[in-house]
Design goal:
This protein is an alpha/beta fold. It has helices at about 50, 75-90, 105-115, 150-160, 165-170, 190-200, 215-220, 220-235, and strands spanning about 5-10, 15-20, 30-35, 60, 95-100, 120-125, 180, 205-210. It has an eight-stranded mixed beta sheet, with helices on both faces. α6 (about 190-200) links the parallel β7 and β8 (about 205-210). The longest helix is centred in the last third of the chain and has 15 residues, at about 220-235.
Length: about 240
């Protein structure tokens, strides 16, 4: 895989990788940004990046406090959203395809609500809907884990349990083509709430791939095919600068 770059946002240093588009990609193809879930880092996408990069340049950041990015709080969903927007600004990405898993999907969703014109399409893989979730919040996590700052989890879970009502309301006006990928009965995320989220999105579509919460890891072929089919159906003109 490609080497890491660092971007200083003033309040935090983010690490990211960039994989150039393949030789047969259009020079003006809209880039893709892949956002990992909580407690992991961008390497979760390693097996999928070469396929996606055949058609466009791919960016793979590590979210704040995870992977090779700086471990500095406070940790919040809107803070991670603002980090993403700062990364796009610093890398001069005016418009992108956002693909996010779990926490990364939530950050992508918030980013799309804040800066809709900069998101050509949105893929939300097993993204917790912005409704109270009743998740158990761990306590007593004083040490950092190998790939993330443990302080992230209680902070983020608290927000997911009591989300800003504006986030749910904002879905109704989020006019961005959105594919909601659900993992089926093996997932711990409410499939009914994900279906409600997809229905609320004006241009939302729900697809279930019964692989559990980690669809991209456990069913990579089906995941890639679903994303590429979704993008192809939108038409090439949407994905050129």
């Amino acid at each position: 895989m490609s080497h890491y770059h660092n971007v200083e946002l003033g309040h935090v240093r983010l690490a990211y990788r960039m994989v150039e588009a393949g030789p047969h990609a259009r020079a003006d193809a809209v880039p893709m940004v892949l956002l990992h879930g909580g407690g992991g880092d961008g390497t979760t996408w390693d097996d999928l990046v070469p396929g996606f990069a055949q058609h466009r340049t791919v960016y793979v950041p590590d979210l704040r406090g995870m992977g090779r990015s700086e471990r500095v709080g406070p940790y919040s969903l809107t803070g991670m959203r603002d980090d993403l927007l700062g990364l796009l600004d610093e890398t001069k990405l005016d418009r992108v395809i956002l693909v996010g898993h779990s926490l990364g999907g939530f950050v992508a969703m918030l980013m799309a609500q804040l800066a809709t014109a900069r998101v050509a399409a949105l893929v939300l893989e097993e993204c917790p809907p912005p409704v109270p979730l009743g998740l158990a919040i761990p306590t007593g996590l004083d040490e950092s884990a190998p790939f993330y700052d443990r302080e992230i989890r209680p902070s983020v879970l608290s927000e997911l349990n009591a989300p800003d009502p504006a986030w749910w309301e904002g879905l109704a006006t989020l006019d961005v083509p959105t594919l909601v990928l659900a993992g089926g009965s093996a997932s711990h995320v409410s499939q009914e709430e994900m279906a409600r989220m997809a229905d609320r999105l004006p241009a939302g579509r729900l697809l279930t791939i019964p692989a559990g919460h980690q669809i991209h890891r456990d069913a990579p072929g089906a995941f890639t095919a679903a994303v590429e089919s979704f993008l192809a159906a939108l038409g090439q003109s949407r994905f050129v600068e």
